[in-house]
Design a protein that fits this description.
By secondary structure, the protein is of the alpha+beta class. It is about 40% helix and about 5% strand. It folds into 2 domains: about 5-120, no CATH class; about 140-325, no CATH class. The chain starts with a helix and ends in a 13-residue tail after the last strand.
């Protein structure tokens, strides 16, 4: 960098920081209005300082200030040493000024701000895409199951219609046992039921198992099918709503550890993806990423019974086309017969 350019840059830095005397500041402002190159240099410096001022706290390392001060001290010591050596040799060796070092540090932080959010978004997208693939595999397994069971999707026809236990003595049905039929019949691998956003836990299925061994092995919620033969994909009432009748999605936000979360009835999305949205499987077997749960028939909330906002564990869909995705696993449950 030439001495003239360095002097001009230092002048503009002081101006941007408001450290010039009034007379010098007025001279700079006059030159800015008539010198395009001078004005462009000032705009570059101003944008850099503005960007540094907008940095979110969580993006900068906690020890950034300490490291920067240490680097500055090291640079000063280096400059002093070089100056002594160069004085002996009577030669000139350019070094970085404190202001140039500050601008360079600001540029590095600006690059970090620009790159980290896209990388984070790319990771979220990749996980959601892998999750959609899992949901699609479950949908294909349901189709094969329906072909073998007279067009009926997996359902439970046990005596109890309660799907959420109220205490240790209550009788409740684990809706995940319905989906486990797909694993027992060889229609879907157990790995498909784990959303990648929550980890990669899996288990070894055995011949005597009738349900998933724990909640961590299943990340999806399934349509209420208790106390009936379930949904028949060829039913005339469903033919006109096939593309909007949701039957499975990422875990419901309304229930956690067997308890109803009242505050989440106001349109909350699945917690699987941090509340950003959910992958939804419709009865025509297409999978769709939605940012809101209001994507059922007539924009119905797929996690709630139409018109009901409080739940005790025995509620049922209002009609055949009312999607009501249940929590698929509860720690207190009874084994009910599935078909």
């Amino acid at each position: 960098m030439s001495a003239e350019r360095a002097e001009q840059q230092n002048l503009l830095i002081d101006y941007a920081r408001g450290e010039l005397p009034p007379a010098e500041a007025a001279a700079v402002e006059a030159r800015l209005s008539g010198d395009d190159g001078f004005r462009k240099s000032y705009e570059d410096i101003k944008r850099t300082f503005d960007a540094v001022g907008l940095l979110p706290d969580e993006q900068a390392p906690k020890d950034l200030v300490a490291k920067t001060v240490a680097r500055i001290r090291q640079a000063r010591q280096t400059e002093a040493l070089i100056a002594r050596e160069e004085a002996k040799r009577r030669a000139v060796h350019p070094t970085f000024s404190l202001r140039e070092l500050g601008v360079a540090a600001a540029a590095v932080l600006l690059i970090a701000v620009a790159l980290i959010p896209p990388l984070r978004q790319a990771r979220h997208t990749a996980i959601a895409t892998q999750c959609a693939s899992n949901v699609g595999r479950i949908g294909s397994g349901m189709l094969a199951y329906a072909n073998a069971y007279d067009d009926y999707l997996p359902a439970a026809d046990g005596k109890t219609r309660r799907w959420l236990p109220t205490d240790a003595d209550s009788q409740a049905f684990s809706n995940s046992a319905v989906l486990y039929r797909l694993i027992r019949g060889g229609y879907v691998s157990n790995t498909a039921f784990r959303c990648p956003a929550g980890g990669s836990d899996t288990f070894q299925a055995t011949a005597d198992m009738t349900d998933f061994p724990a909640a961590k092995y299943i990340s999806y919620s399934y349509q209420h099918t208790l106390g009936s033969r379930g949904l028949r994909v060829s039913d005339p009432q469903l033919q006109t709503v096939m593309a909007r009748m949701a039957i499975l999605a990422d875990s419901t936000p309304l229930f956690e550890d067997g308890k109803f979360i009242r505050r989440n009835v106001t349109g909350k999305s699945s917690p699987n993806h941090g509340g950003r949205g959910q992958n939804v499987l419709f009865i025509d077997r297409h999978v769709e990423w939605t940012k809101t749960p209001d994507v059922g028939v007539d924009d119905d909330n797929i996690f709630m019974v139409s018109g009901i906002e409080d739940y005790t564990g025995s509620e049922e869909p209002a009609d055949m086309t009312d999607t009501f995705l249940l929590p698929t696993f509860t720690s207190l449950r009874t084994a009910s017969r599935t078909r």
